[in-house]
């Protein structure tokens, strides 16, 4: 695979277990900076588990165990001295179902910046926070729709707006990478298309890794695609093939990939 | 009218009629069950009002108990109840909420946690007089607090603790996991996720449970009699170490006197107690309806 852009995060031989069941087997992948990498594959093949390896969210599942390394700018985020809180502040996440806090739109965006003390002296001035909220909402293409009701609850917005609010909330702490777990699957087609446009726009400044069930979406929006499937033998998720999206969708090397992207299974 | 015409099957219709009638009978039985409770409560309210209305006078609130019915009032009992409720809430609320947070957010799914859970459920079912005996041994004698309102409140706090823990756990569990995940994904520590999200969103439920626990405590008599809460107090309660009495004890005391007038006073006391209880329960319902977060 040719890589014209820099690698920001690199996964080496990652294995994940939930209790005795292996969910991911020996996955290695390089993620190029400021590109969109899509993760596709049939249900239950470990796509979401893989995504959560990038910000150590799997650790919140009591039975989960992760082996292998995830190198972020060359540092293993699973090293003993690394605090997961610091990982998550640099590698943000947007979930499948919009999950804004039941607080004001302003507070949804401002909260993470405040608790992470992102100012040099650890304190935000109100004007700076307002500026941050506006910038983040503009980047998430939501500002024009909410600028007059910043103090209404985030839950008063429509589903698509809520998801963009969650994106604004994630970028307010200026992460380098944004993980998206089927961000449009709970939305109607128009709201879904807006999220796709937003992802294209955001990829100018951020590295995006997105799990999707929707192959058209993956083909439309992503630069690179990784295809996962279940290993026949032990039902663990494996990475079958990874490459530029147009190659994966038009000329896959593996017949399992071809079967999936042409709709023969999955 | 032949049997072959659809929707006119005699045998089936007869069966259907029986089925419908069975349904009606069951509905009637259920209605009766509902009315029994209502009627009894209404009868109690009417009976108490008839007996007590004439005794409901300002002196009831301002006078100490007396052997002359005309001069007797609930002053010390009201003070005792108020002191006890406030102290009990101060003691039981942080302990109950803290225990609930630990069990829901920090406690791992291990055998110890399950053991604690079962015990809390059991504690909620322990007869209140047992708590009274515990309070007598532990607080009155052991800590030498005497028969003070503080000893009573500590006992009451133990009694209502399981109620607060159970209610708080339910409220905390009702906060969806996705909210915690959202906070963690934004770089929050576990404490920050709890402090800024889980606890605030659970608070209406926690407060509702606490108020209901307090209204249970207001009505409790047995444990306070056990620790020796006096019935005749003719001075103001000035501090947590003073001896005290509470509304239900004073009411019980008046009822056990032979004079008819004291029974009227007791009825008036019951009216006050009921108003306080209904008021607190209404407040709990309002809190639940108004503030509870819907997900």
Helix content of chain B: over 70%
Might you state the CATH topology name of the largest domain in chain B? MetI-like fold
Q: What is the CATH homology-level superfamily of the domain at 7-101 and 175-261 in chain A?
A: P-loop containing nucleotide triphosphate hydrolases
Regarding quaternary structure, how should these chains be classified? heterodimer
Nearest-integer average pLDDT of chain B = 89
Question: Which CATH architecture of the largest domain in chain B would you pick?
Answer: Orthogonal Bundle
Count all strands of chain A and give the number.
10
Order of helices and strands of chain B: HHHHHHHHHHH
The radius of gyration of chain A is 19 Å
Your description of this structure?
The complex is a heterodimer of chains A (266) and B (295). With 266 residues, chain A is α/β, with parallel strands linked by helices. Helices cover 34% and strands 26% of the residues of chain A. Chain A has a domain of 182 residues: Rossmann fold, CATH 3.40.50.300. Chain A is globular, with a radius of gyration of 19 Å. Chain B is an all-alpha fold and 295 residues long. Chain B folds into two domains: 46 residues; 233 residues, MetI-like fold. Chain B has eleven helices and no strands. The chains are: A alpha/beta (266), B mainly alpha (295). At the A-B interface, helix 2, helix 3 and helix 6 of A face helix 7 and helix 8 of B.
Short overview:
The complex is a heterodimer of chains A (266) and B (295). Chain A is an alpha/beta fold and 266 residues long.
């Amino acid at each position: 695979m040719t890589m014209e852009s820099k690698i920001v995060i690199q996964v080496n031989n990652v294995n994940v277990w939930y209790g005795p069941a292996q969910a991911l087997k020996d996955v290695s992948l390089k993620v190029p900076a400021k590109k969109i990498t899509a993760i596709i594959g049939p249900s239950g093949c470990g796509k979401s588990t893989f995504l959560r390896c990038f910000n150590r969210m799997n650790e919140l599942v009591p039975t989960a165990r992760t082996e292998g390394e995830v190198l972020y700018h060359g540092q293993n985020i699973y090293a003993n001295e690394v605090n997961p809180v610091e990982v998550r502040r640099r590698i943000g996440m947007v979930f499948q179902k919009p999950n804004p806090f039941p607080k004001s739109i302003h507070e949804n965006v401002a909260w993470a910046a405040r608790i992470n003390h992102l100012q040099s002296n650890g304190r935000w001035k109100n004007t700076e926070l307002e500026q941050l909220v506006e910038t983040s909402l503009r980047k998430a293409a939501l500002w024009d729709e909410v600028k007059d009701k910043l103090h209404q609850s985030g839950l008063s917005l429509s589903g698509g707006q809520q998801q963009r609010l969650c994106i604004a909330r994630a970028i307010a702490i200026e992460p380098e990478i944004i993980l998206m777990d089927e961000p449009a699957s709970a939305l109607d087609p128009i709201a879904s298309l807006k999220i796709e446009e937003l992802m294209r726009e955001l990829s100018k400044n951020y590295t995006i890794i997105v799990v999707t069930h929707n192959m058209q979406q993956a083909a439309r929006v992503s630069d690179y695609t990784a295809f996962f499937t279940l290993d026949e033998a032990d039902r663990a998720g494996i990475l079958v093939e990874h490459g530029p999206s147009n190659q994966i969708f038009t000329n896959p090397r593996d017949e399992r990939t071809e079967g999936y992207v042409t709709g023969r299974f999955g | 009218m032949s049997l072959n015409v659809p929707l006119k099957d005699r045998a089936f219709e007869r069966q259907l009629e029986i089925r419908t009638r069975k349904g009606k009978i069951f509905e009637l039985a259920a209605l009766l069950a509902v009315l029994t409770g209502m009627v009894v409560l209404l009868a109690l309210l009417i009976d108490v009002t008839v007996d007590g209305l004439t005794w409901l006078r300002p002196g009831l609130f301002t006078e100490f108990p007396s052997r002359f019915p005309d001069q007797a009032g609930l002053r010390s009992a009201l003070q005792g109840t108020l002191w006890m409720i406030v102290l009990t809430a101060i003691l039981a609320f942080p302990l109950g909420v803290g225990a609930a947070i630990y069990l829901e957010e920090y406690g791992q799914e291990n055998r110890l946690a399950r053991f604690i859970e079962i015990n809390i459920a059991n504690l909620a079912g322990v007869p209140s007089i047992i708590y009274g005996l515990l309070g007598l041994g532990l607080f009155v004698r052991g800590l030498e607090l005497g028969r003070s309102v503080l000893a009573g409140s500590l006992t009451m706090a133990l009694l209502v603790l399981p109620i607060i823990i159970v209610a708080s756990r339910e409220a905390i569990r009702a906060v969806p996991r996705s909210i915690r995940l959202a906070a963690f994904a934004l770089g929050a520590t576990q404490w920050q996720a709890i402090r800024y999200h889980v606890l605030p969103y659970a608070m209406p439920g926690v407060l509702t449970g606490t108020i209901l626990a307090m209204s249970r405590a207001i009505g409790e008599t047995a444990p306070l009699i056990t620790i020796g809460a006096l019935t005749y107090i003719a001075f103001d309660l000035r501090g947590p170490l003073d001896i005290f009495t509470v509304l239900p004890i004073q009411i019980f005391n008046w009822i056990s006197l032979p004079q008819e007038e004291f029974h009227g006073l007791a009825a008036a006391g019951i009216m006050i107690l009921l108003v306080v209880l209904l008021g607190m329960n209404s407040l709990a319902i309002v809190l639940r309806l108004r503030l509870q977060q819907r997900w």
